[in-house]
Specification:
This protein has 236 residues and is mainly alpha-helical. It has one domain (4-234). Helices cover 75% and strands 6% of the residues. It has 8 helices and 2 strands. It has helices at residues 4-18, 31-62, 87-113, 117-135, 139-158, 161-192, 199-207, 211-234, and strands at residues 66-72, 78-83. It has a two-stranded antiparallel ribbon with strand order 1-2. A hairpin with a 5-residue loop joins strand 1 (66-72) and strand 2. Helix 2 (31-62) packs across helix 4. The radius of gyration is 18 Å and the shape is globular. The relative contact order is 0.14.
């Protein structure tokens, strides 16, 4: 794969941005810079939230359910309100979020491996447009999607080739890093606050399998996806 060095750089940037609160101790006396970095990191990380909640919504449709709405928040949290007709459907919908994020990360890096950089932007444009038109119900979600779609379309229209490469790599790296970090957060919550561990708590309620098992599964999946990406698309 060409542009391996860029991938390393953007993986590191994605890691730093994903853990931006810790930078406050390193940027002493410059709160403005810290706030700018934090805002930028959160805004880009929402791309993974978009993927995560869309996977819940799509699985709901596949299993015969309905989508009441999707919310995207500035703190990178999200919510897909769905209805399902059976316990199995509820399990599949709850399971789809973190699993879908990991699978999408694999797909994005496969496109990088093929050097189909524009396809990554097309993927996010289509996914964002579907959410904007049919699912997202909160004001911030509308505004973020509008800006995100506008930016993607502008870069594609102007055909800034070098910039397209950088943006596509950055987005892929951010989705991968966020899929791992968010899964780790759920794993941690499944130990410290199992009633509020998001999808892991829901799955525990639907299956009677402990929250910790689901939290561990989500995290192991995300690490497995990262290992697969490194093994098949980077170190080749």
């Amino acid at each position: 794969m060409e542009n391996k060095n860029l991938i390393y750089v953007y993986l590191f940037i994605a890691l730093v941005l994903s853990n931006i609160p810790f930078l406050h101790s390193f940027i002493k006396g410059n709160a403005r810079v810290s706030k700018v970095f934090h805002a930028f990191g959160m805004s880009v990380a929402i791309a993974n939230t978009l993927v995560h909640e869309s996977c819940h919504a799509l699985m709901s449709l596949v299993t015969g359910g309905r989508i009441r709405g999707v919310s995207l928040s500035a703190d990178t949290s999200g919510l897909a309100e769905t209805t399902s007709n059976s316990r199995v459907a509820k399990i599949l919908v709850s399971y789809a979020g973190y699993t879908g994020s990991s699978l999408v990360a694999v797909g994005l890096f496969y496109l990088l491996y093929l050097e189909k950089y524009e396809w990554i932007l097309y993927f996010f444009i289509v996914l964002s447009a579907i959410n904007w038109l049919f699912w997202v119900r909160n004001l911030f979600g509308f505004l973020w999607l509008t800006a995100f779609i506008g930016m993607m379309v502008f870069f594609l229209y102007k055909h800034f080739e070098v910039l397209l490469i950088h943006i596509s790599i950055f987005l892929a790296c951010m989705v991968l890093m966020q899929s791992i970090i968010s899964a780790f957060v759920i794993l941690k919550l499944s130990v410290t606050d199992r009633r509020n561990a998001g999808d892991a708590s829901n799955l525990a309620r639907f299956t009677f399998i402990p929250t910790l098992v689901w939290g561990t599964l989500f995290f192991v999946q995300s690490i497995g996806a990262a290992f697969y990406i490194v093994r098949h698309f980077i170190f080749v």
